[in-house]
């Protein structure tokens, strides 16, 4: 397979404007065939009517303004639960916290509650179903994060010298059985309900009725060909994986950077105190006013983009790119790592400087952590809400310090969304000004 790598904003702009439709396809990677239901899941589906239908479902039933508002309580509750756990564990003193696992729990539970009405992560999610789901998701993330030689050199696909195909087949069986049981459970509960209203008032006893799976099952009754069980399972898989890993990893990187730059942490705390105060916890309505917090997230995404080469694209036809002829079937990789750290594009490119975004330094195609064009990540707004809410709440209510005197190691690891090589541990204790607030959570 021929591969082209672009490493400049001008080339990226040409890819996703002039050649946007041409590069809207995905290459046929092994994970797409085995784990993503023969290239029918949204992330691996070729550009066409099926993909457009999936994107429409996500846009309307998960990340529309109405649905995001409807699920506000879920996001708030999961963040509050994290604060409560940290407060109970600290007892007013600095205690060590494994931030990687805590942030992952928040991200996963928000998404699984929106999709299936269930919590699968954390201390209170200890039943067998939750354990199975955690094990399956852990393996899915690991398998997706490993490079498969056969995707680039077809001869290795046949040989399977890494054992990747064999492992994927076993994982597919476990995953498929779990998701099918989940769908059947929802279908059984909904059997006597002719319609699912998306406008019912929020409440724990109604949460299950508003999940994405329930909506898809109701659509299946009128358009079975468009909403098969495999389509539902593929959509659930894509949303859980893509909608959790990137948010959790970015929040971990952000906290690591703030611990290495306490002056930025103090500035963020001061902004929250000024706009929110100390007599209540921040909520999503506060986020538009917290511009420095948003700048911190943008700077984190610049330095540590979740997918440094973006998800691969493939040309569906011959085209030209920056004067070069690109044949049909060429894999396109966008080198975000190079673009985001290019000293010709950014002042002090290697440094953590959230203030750079106050002057519009990240405009255009210089900063595209979630992609661009038709295949841009549809969950950008949801992800940014989760990251800003959780990160803002953590620094509003707790004091944070490094475990030792030395700076946090920022070495990157290998995985689906470029994790830290060493999971982040930090010390935290309640801020005196917010101790009373935390005691009421």
Task: Pick out its properties.
single chain, 441 residues, Cytochrome p450, 3-stranded mixed β-sheet, 3-stranded antiparallel β-sheet, 8 strands, 49% helix, 7% strand
Structure, described:
There is one protein chain. The chain is 49% helix and 7% strand. It is mostly helical. The protein has a three-stranded mixed sheet with strand order 1-6-3, with no helix packed on it. Strands 2-8-7 form a three-stranded antiparallel sheet. A hairpin with a 2-residue loop joins strand 4 and strand 5. It is globular. Its cofactor is heme. One of its GO terms (molecular function) is oxidoreductase activity, acting on paired donors, with incorporation or reduction of molecular oxygen. InterPro entries: Cyt_P450, Cyt_P450_CS, Cyt_P450_E_grp-I, Cyt_P450_sf, Plant_Cytochrome_P450_Monoox. Keywords: Heme, Iron, Metal-binding, Monooxygenase, Oxidoreductase.
């Amino acid at each position: 397979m021929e591969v082209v790598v672009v490493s400049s904003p001008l080339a990226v702009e040409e890819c996703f404007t002039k050649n946007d439709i041409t590069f809207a396809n995905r290459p046929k990677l092994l994970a797409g065939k085995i784990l993503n239901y023969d290239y029918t899941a949204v992330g691996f589906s070729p550009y066409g009517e099926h993909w457009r239908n999936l994107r429409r479902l996500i846009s309307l039933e998960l990340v529309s303004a109405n649905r995001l508002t409807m699920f506000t309580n879920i996001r708030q509750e999961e963040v509050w639960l994290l604060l409560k756990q940290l407060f109970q564990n600290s007892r007013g003193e600095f205690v060590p916290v494994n931030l990687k696992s805590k942030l992952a729990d928040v991200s996963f539970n928000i998404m699984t509650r929106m999709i299936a009405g269930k919590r699968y992560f954390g201390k209170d999610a200890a039943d067998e179903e939750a354990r199975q789901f955690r094990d399956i998701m852990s393996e899915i993330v690991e398998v997706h994060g490993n490079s498969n030689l056969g995707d680039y050199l077809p001869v290795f696909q046949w040989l399977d010298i890494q054992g990747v195909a064999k492992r994927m087949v076993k994982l597919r069986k476990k995953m498929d059985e779990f998701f099918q049981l989940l769908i059947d459970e929802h279908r059984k509960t909904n059997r006597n309900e002719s319609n699912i209203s998306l406008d019912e008032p929020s409440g724990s006893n109604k949460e299950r009725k508003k999940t994405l799976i329930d909506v898809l099952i109701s659509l299946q009754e009128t358009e079975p060909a468009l909403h098969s069980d495999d389509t539902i399972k593929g959509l659930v898989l894509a949303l859980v994986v893509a909608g959790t890993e990137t948010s959790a990893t970015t929040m971990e990187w952000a906290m690591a950077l703030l611990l290495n730059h306490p002056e930025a942490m103090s500035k963020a705390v001061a902004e929250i105190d000024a706009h929110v105060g100390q007599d209540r916890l921040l909520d999503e309505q506060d986020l538009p006013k917290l511009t420095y917090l948003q700048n911190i997230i943008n700077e984190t995404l610049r330095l540590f983009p979740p997918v440094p080469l973006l998800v691969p694209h493939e040309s569906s036809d011959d085209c030209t790119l920056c004067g070069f002829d690109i044949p049909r079937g060429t894999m396109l990789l966008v080198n975000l790592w190079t673009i985001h750290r290019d000293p010709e594009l950014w002042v002090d490119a290697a440094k953590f400087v959230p203030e750079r975004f106050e002057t519009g330094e990240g405009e255009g195609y210089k900063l595209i952590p979630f992609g661009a064009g038709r295949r841009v990540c549809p969950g950008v707004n949801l992800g940014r809400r989760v990251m800003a809410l959780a990160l803002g709440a953590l620094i509003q209510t707790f004091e944070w310090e490094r475990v030792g005197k030395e700076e946090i190691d920022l070495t990157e690891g290998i995985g689906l969304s470029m994790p830290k090589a060493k999971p982040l541990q930090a010390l935290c204790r309640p801020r005196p000004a917010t101790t009373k607030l935390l005691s009421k959570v």
